[in-house]
Amino acid sequence: MRFEQLEYLTAVIQHGSLRRAGERLHVSQSALSEAISALERELGVPLLERHRSGARVSREGRDLLPVMTEILAGVARLKAAARDHARTIRVGTVNAGTSSLLVPAVREFGAGHPSTTVDVATLLQAEIQERLIEGRLDVGVINVFPGDDLPAALEGTVLLRGVPKVCCRTDDPLAAQPAVSVADLRARPFVAMRPGYLMHRLAQRLFGDAPPPETFSTDGAEMGKTLVATGTGPTILPDYSIVGDPLETAGVITARPLAEEVPPVMMLLVRRRFDRVPPAIADFEETIVRLARSV
């Protein structure tokens, strides 16, 4: 029996089919089916009900889910204990609060834990959640709208609450307006986040079928703010990503409210729900939560 066989079956149960599980795990349906068939032969019970229309988890497979979850949680605890020994904390971030929160947290944590390394990777939200579930990340920092659900295996703590705003240069005519409308943005070149970022969802909603005639796509808030600063065009970001950024404090960029109603946005600290939290990771979480409360 291999641990990935249990992970494959658990994914099929969670996502409802081999196809969706394969898409989530980036594994072919044939490889999933073959691995689960081998597990069926070893356990002596049918785990999937296979039909011409596709495969679904059997009653026996669902009955075994609590045991499999316990085993996978034990593996996660083992990995966490090993990471304790390695003394490296792996953090995934969508980049929106890097300057105002994550960088200060890493700096303060590092001063108190000189023998622990913090490895920060900028990723899409879906990648962060996937790597947390798989145990390839320890902590994630993501943005969500109210009503966005986390996977059942993850839990989140609210770090910051804000609202999406227009980010533009301070010498841009938009900066002189009390509020910026969608029509204003449609008339200008626009810096858009790529699909997979929260602000891409918002821009799609605001612009609908009539986007700005010239759009520049980028990955993450930091590069977006850099493009804004060089005069490429405005963008839309959470206000906590703009206020306190070095470009904002230097007077290069600023934030202006949108004239249209937009949903609030939250930054979450996310990790696995059933992990035993190693002391170093707990200290890092305490540091970033405390700094967030003081922002």
Structure description:
Pfam families: HTH_1, LysR_substrate. There is one protein chain. The protein has 3 domains: 3-63, Winged helix-like DNA-binding domain superfamily/Winged helix DNA-binding domain (Arc Repressor Mutant, subunit A, Orthogonal Bundle), CATH 1.10.10.10; 86-158 and 266-294, Periplasmic binding protein-like II (D-Maltodextrin-Binding Protein, domain 2), CATH 3.40.190.10; 164-263, D-Maltodextrin-Binding Protein, domain 2 (3-Layer(aba) Sandwich). The chain contains 13 helices and 12 strands. The chain has helices spanning 3-15, 18-25, 29-43, 59-63, 65-86, 98-112, 125-134, 182-186, 198-207, 220-229, 239-242, 246-249, 279-294; strands at 48-51, 54-57, 88-93, 117-122, 139-144, 154-162, 164-169, 190-193, 215-218, 235-238, 253-256, 265-272. Helix 6 links the parallel strand 3 (88-93) and strand 4. The longest helix is centred in the N-terminal third of the chain and has 22 residues, at 65-86.
